[in-house]
Amino acid sequence: MHGRLKVKTTEEQAEAKRLEREKKLHLYVTATKAIFEKRKMEQLDKEALELTSQILGANPDFATLWNFRREIFLHLEEETPKEMQALCKAELSFLESCLRVNPKSYGTWHHRCWVMEHIPEPDWDRELELCNKFLEIDERNFHCWDYRRFVVQQSQVPPQEELAFSDSLITRNFSNYSSWHYRSRLLPQLHPDPHQQGRITEEVLLKELELVQNAFFTDPNDQSAWFYHRWLLGRADPEPSIRCIYVNREDASLAVAFSHPVAVAPASHDLIVFGDESPLVVRWHTPDGRNKPGLMWLCDLPTSALNDHWPQHTFRVLWAEGQSQKECVLFKGHKDCWSQDSVTEEQIFRCELSVEKSTVLQSELESCKELQALEPENKWCLLTIVLLMRALDPLVYERETLSYFETLKAADPMRSAYLDDLRSKFLIENSILKMEYAESRVVDLSQKGLTVLCHLEHLLVVTHMNLSDNRLHCLPPSLAMMRCLEVLEADENQIETLEGLPALPCLEELSLCNNRIRQPSALQPLASFPKLAHLNLQGNPLCQLPGVQSELAALLPDVATILT
Amino acid sequence: MADSLPSEFDVVVIGTGLPESIIAAACSRSGQRVLHVDSRAYYGGNWASFSFSGLLSWIKENQEKADTCEETEPWKDLILGNEEGIPLSKKDKTIQHVEEFCYASQDSVEDVEEAGALPKHSTSVIPTSSEVLEEASATTEEECVPLDGQSSGVKGEETSPESPSENNAKCPDDHNSVEVTSLGEKHSDDVTSDQSVSGTENEESTSIMDATAEPKKITYSQIVKEGRRFNIDLISKLLYSRGLLIDLLIKSNVSRYAEFKNVTRILAFREGRVEQVPCSRADVFNSKQLTMVEKRMLMRFLTFCLDYEAHPDEYQAQKDCKFSDYLKTQKLTPNLQHFILHSIAMVSEADCCTIDGLKATQKFLQCLGRYGNTPFLFPLYGQGEIPQCFCRMCAVFGGIYCLRHSVQCLVVDKETRRCKAIIDHFGQRINASYFVVEDSYLSEKICRNVCYRQISRAVLITDRSILKTSSDQQISILNIPSMEPDQPAVCIIELCSSAMTCMKNTYLVHLTCSSVKTAKEDLEPVVWQLFTIVTETESEGTGASVQKPQILWSVYFNMKDSSGVDRTLYDSLPSNVYVCSGPDSALGNDCAVRQAEAIFQEMFPSEEFCPPPPNPEDIIYDGDGTQAEDPRFSNESEANPETLPEE
């Protein structure tokens, strides 16, 4: 009788499976034990290779065993090159079988690199072909991308071939961060911009922009293309340097502001101060006294360096690491002096996107606007428009930028806090630019909807700042970088406490009306402000507390007037 | 030779077209004893594929005048008093208006013979694929219960000199072919069988070299000589990547018997020019013909179509308007409208409503990306492979196969009005409970109330592709909208040699439409738009005509389309006789699968339709206890580990 097959029931199947698993587990445990035994006895022989291959074949993520295999290989290196070659070849094919089990195993790929470094006659073409295969199956396997870069480096594959490979993968599926990223490494090698290190020539740039435009017009929600676009329009990070030095005669201090957060040892030889061309012995510290890497470092100058015998004193700060220096001259009778980079000339705030190619930026802005007309809610497009406008001219486009921020926040409510902060940053930058054009030491940041304060290192010499009517929740510790600030208005915010605020050396007048300060203790830090004379706290919840005046007077005995 | 055929079965299936073959496989799989017969000498009926010489024989046979003489009725002596016979038709009358044309140079054709061809048998038609199962039918019963498909499957690679796979060495450039298994989706994590990383894959490059080297004129004698390279489908179809047939192939594991290639291009014909239609995300990205804004508009519309149900406000108002008018309101440029209407939705401009157009577009898009950048698969060696794959499945589970085995009549019990047996051409009576009959076997008397539609078909062998690109190995589909109101839209499928359907440096072009007139009248206008012929004077060949592919050989014919026939129209057919139709004119195979499943469910309402086969390890063998030592089984499971279903 033909026809119907008898098939095991699910219970029988489960039982059979269970027995099988038990058997497997037993084998695994026994072999593992045997391997560790051998390692202990330092039996670095082929039997150990065989045993570890059994385990690694099933579980390629057992890193210890890969290490053991490397020990064995090093031990066997005394064999003839021919035998070694055979051994390595066997190892490579074993590795391939492991990669088939798990193509994303760190240990396996790493071991493959190691074997290729030790094989007497490496066949790099085959390795490249292997990468092709794996990337065909999963074009975003970054382990394989890493290995590919290793192979390319070792075998010196010409970058144009690799670029063609990146082309082919992007053609197949452009949602491929690795491939876009690879282009950003290859193109500067192939078509370096003679004027700017790490960038590419305009002709190639235009071609790449077209390619990436194709991607984001096809699928504007795919971020990989937008990231590459950002790279294309960006420029190399500026070198770290000294932005500003400031000398204050009164408290005999010198402040140095850097472009990047830096670490400076208290008695550093990297950061040296010369007073009238002779090195001074100083100890560096940060404004908050914690000496963590920061944008500003301070030191106290020896009184001898500021004596009144000379009509002037020249201070020069030399920073070895950033290979930069700055100098300023303190004249007799002046209370302070400084030397500061110009934010307008140095285009410090435009560093995200390049300005050299403003025609390119202009046309990119046009096409993004075109896309935005079709996809009014696309956040990547909106954000890119904002960035392009900033790169082109932050002040001219200020109003337009702000309206795009509103659309962007509506389109991407999940990131509204990030966008608020970004917007605050841009507005502060604009205010700093305007202040510099006006050649003033007064900055007005009121009524801008700020949620965060930044770039305060550029406000080192500002004496008056108005932060009123914003959305600030606190005054950040970085405020201490404003070494000259005398008057600070921060009315109509949501400030609850001043906790953590280091002393501001020159602050005389502080207005915090209509904030959310509930307890006098929240004002504790003000006790250490040496010059604070006027404090206005009207409209804060703490004004309702009975006896608040006397409590504040006790807390801040040196403040002459406290309004509540 | 059929003396030893058993005379008791559960199901007798007459005809080996796709629906019959699926039913046979389903019945056999669920434990029914199945006899599957076909009076033809080849599998597939009108779903078959032929080698070139096979097709010539088929043409000859169908050009012969139908026998008008009254058939003798020897079966009358073999039925009992309480029975009556329903005679079955002996002559297939589904093909009409066959017209063959040869334009390739025809010197010395007489001495040329197909390489590797068998000496001509008495049979007029030589099928492309093997007939080994017929041998199985001649053997004793035990031997033709082949649980293992290898030993006597439909293919029988070793035994049949006619098998195409022998000469073609079964290596149709692997990197493009698609294995349709349940694991076969594109991004499986493991690096499968392709161990030879360093393996050379220069087939494509060599073929390009050949093409550029010297485009030699192919002569008729070369076509005849290389005739076995051709696998010419009678009905031209493609598999939708998420269509019912693919689902069934995967579910039933029949997919292991076939190989597929992705259709590589969707083409459009606009303003006298053939161009590629960007339809997938990668296509749109790479397209040079679309502007940036067009890219966005197209992607935007296609993304909307993918889940149009979720945005009723965007189409509700125009639900019943024409789809072509709806597209005009969608900010799409005219060429995008053309692409969507004719190449993606592939619907009629004149009478397709918005909702149907959206549905068709959605279906197309849902099929994208499963196996590649287009929604379609083509079975290597031709559409005719598919019915055979199901026959093989049926044979693996014990079905018995007899080709060239005609049935004289169905025997009906007068009292119960149920069919109880058939009487075959040897006069043997074979009893069964269910009968499945392909409708071309039904006599004119039974079909007298039925009127049929027709399909117009043309098959061309050409010398170059209708759209030349860097790679000459492309499978393309091109839908030509109707040019005049009474003219049908024509679907063109162009196959290359790596689809294993034609010889090197030729292309096989299938044209299909629903008939208005004869095939030639329906299709010739389109043929002359796209192709040209070699004439003596023109052989110097300069100017525009060189751009068009030249036709080397062509055939036109009409095929009966019985797909829409209501069963109740058949006269006095017993209720346990089920009728399957021939191919329909649609591009996909959904109609056949749906029909097969419906008939199977009607016969066996409680049985599952083509369930996955059991894991060999889980099969319990009688007598031998539990050990799975059957060598045939273990062989198979080792041979095809990747095709086994994952538990």
Quick overview of this protein structure:
The complex is a heterodimer of chains A (564) and B (647). Chain A is α/β, with parallel strands linked by helices and 564 residues long.
Structure explained in plain terms:
The complex is a heterodimer of chains A (564) and B (647). In chain A, the strands form three sheets. A six-stranded parallel beta sheet of chain A has the order 11-12-13-14-15-16. In chain A, strands 6-7-3-2-10 form a five-stranded antiparallel beta sheet, with no helix packed on it. Chain A has four domains: 22-157, Alpha Horseshoe (Serine Threonine Protein Phosphatase 5, Tetratricopeptide repeat), CATH 1.25.40.120; 242-341, Sandwich (Immunoglobulin-like); 348-422, no CATH class; 440-563, Alpha-Beta Horseshoe (Leucine-rich repeat, LRR (right-handed beta-alpha superhelix)), CATH 3.80.10.10. In chain A, helix 9 runs parallel beside helix 11, helix 10 packs parallel to helix 13 (358-374) and helix 15 (398-411) runs antiparallel to helix 16 (416-437). By secondary structure, chain A is an alpha/beta fold. In chain A, strand 8 and strand 9 form a beta hairpin. In chain A, 45% of the residues lie in helices and 13% in strands. Helix content of chain B is 26%, strand content 18%. Chain B has 17 helices and 25 strands. Chain B folds into four domains: 1-48 and 130-163 and 387-450 and 565-613, 3-Layer(bba) Sandwich (FAD/NAD(P)-binding domain); 49-58 and 94-125 and 205-233 and 453-561, Guanine Nucleotide Dissociation Inhibitor, domain 2 (2-Layer Sandwich); 278-367, Guanine Nucleotide Dissociation Inhibitor, domain 1; 614-647, no CATH class. In chain B, a hairpin with a 4-residue loop joins strand 15 and strand 16. Chain B is globular and about 75 Å long. In chain B, helix 1 (18-29) packs parallel to helix 14 and helix 1 (18-29) packs parallel to helix 16 (590-603). With 647 residues, chain B is an alpha+beta fold. The chains are: A alpha/beta (564), B alpha+beta (647). The A-B interface holds A 2-8, 12-13, 16, 96, 99-101, 103, 125-126, 129-130, 133-134, 137-138, 171-174, 213-215, 217-220, 367, 370-371, 374-375 and B 28, 31-33, 141, 145, 187-192, 194-195, 197-198, 281-282, 284-286, 292-293, 295-297, 299-300, 397-398, 614, 617-622.
